[in-house]
């Protein structure tokens, strides 16, 4: 069965055929490291992590390049506002993103290049565009001429008046939609020397250069969030194809995470940051929430929906853990059920695939209640194969290692809580009710959330079957 993916460029669901056999090359627009990661940015990465996992399940070798934009106007503005070096902003937030991807169980990319490590190649590409007369210099700035590229606007299907309305400002531009390849140096900003003067690269040229260097002049899939379609991806296509590259053969875009109908934006103190959300749910539960809707659909974030998704995943997890105790040597199946595969091959239709997941959970819970180990083993092995594709198998990595670590920490916390409770009882026996109450309040606050999560996973199968 072929894998079919929605290609933004052609506005059609197309059969996916790699350029070279089973070798698949993917470029994902990574973060601009100006602020800590928020749920919108992470959803996109989880969605395309599922894509990479499904391709690997299908027997493909995946080369995945996910860039880091560590040189951009927003980074420089924040550094100026906080009176700190620009590289400190970039490095601090890069580490936050790296930790976030790891926490959510995303497979590491094959390569994760930083923009500032490829300035020489950016200068070379700009020189190439100047020679081909697709670019021009204005007082140290270099602009791409959209009039020189007749296909400009095909990806976004934008009309000329819409392009003009969203055009970036610039001195001496020949056309309102011309975009900066290079920006001349400003006082206090980092700069590099070039034949047309000191300065720094624009945003769009960075991805064209890194994609070419690590994936070649033509590669299979370019992925990113839907807000990047214009101008970023439109401009990438223009400058890369104008330089003679075939560039991406398929364009995949993930939907936006919204709140009150508005896109969640980058912010240093975002209420939708990963650190804030993980006070409510565990990383594996957040991954389930981010993966459960179709990757191309927008997701209206709500705390209630997040908690409901977490509770639903704990039902799946609880069954897997109970089944593994009954059958400790059972392993995931090597093949997922055909209906699950059909859903995944249909443009990564995870919502439909999850109906097959839940059917296996319900079947397995009935088998547990009835003591039918043969049916239980079959249901659990099928389920774990499907969860593995989604990066959600609680007995797979990285979740199994974390579970073992968390179990040790939980046992330690419970032992310390019992010790504090004993101290409180001793204080009350001595007549020191104030100390006893204070100790009990502190231990309740410290242990909040430890027992409920554990208890959910341990609920009797009779309450979950059906």
Keywords:
single chain, 466 residues, alpha/beta, Rossmann fold, Four Helix Bundle (Hemerythrin (Met), subunit A), 3 domains, four-stranded antiparallel beta sheet, 13 strands, 49% helix, globular, disordered C terminus, EC 6.1.1.16, Cysteine--tRNA ligase, Cys-tRNA-ligase
| Number of contiguous helices | 16
Order of helices and strands: EEEHEHHHEEHEEHEHEEEHHEHHHHHHH
Question: Largest sheet, described in full?
Answer: 4 strands, parallel
Strand order of the largest sheet: 4-3-9-10
* Count of the domains: 3
Proper CATH architecture of the largest domain: 3-Layer(aba) Sandwich
Structural summary, described in words:
- It is an enzyme of class 6 (ligase).
- Its cofactor is Zn(2+).
- Keywords: Aminoacyl-tRNA synthetase, ATP-binding, Cytoplasm, Ligase, Metal-binding, Nucleotide-binding, Protein biosynthesis, Zinc.
- It is found in: Cytoplasm.
- GO terms for molecular function: ATP binding; cysteine-tRNA ligase activity; zinc ion binding.
- This protein has 466 residues and is α/β, with parallel strands linked by helices.
- It has three domains: 260 residues, Rossmann fold, CATH 3.40.50; 90 residues, Four Helix Bundle (Hemerythrin (Met), subunit A) (Up-down Bundle), CATH 1.20.120.640; 65 residues.
- The protein is built from 16 helices and 13 strands.
- It has a four-stranded parallel β-sheet with strand order 4-3-9-10. The protein has a four-stranded antiparallel β-sheet with strand order 5-6-7-8.
- Strand 11 and strand 12 form a beta hairpin.
- 40% of the residues are buried.
- The C terminus is likely disordered.
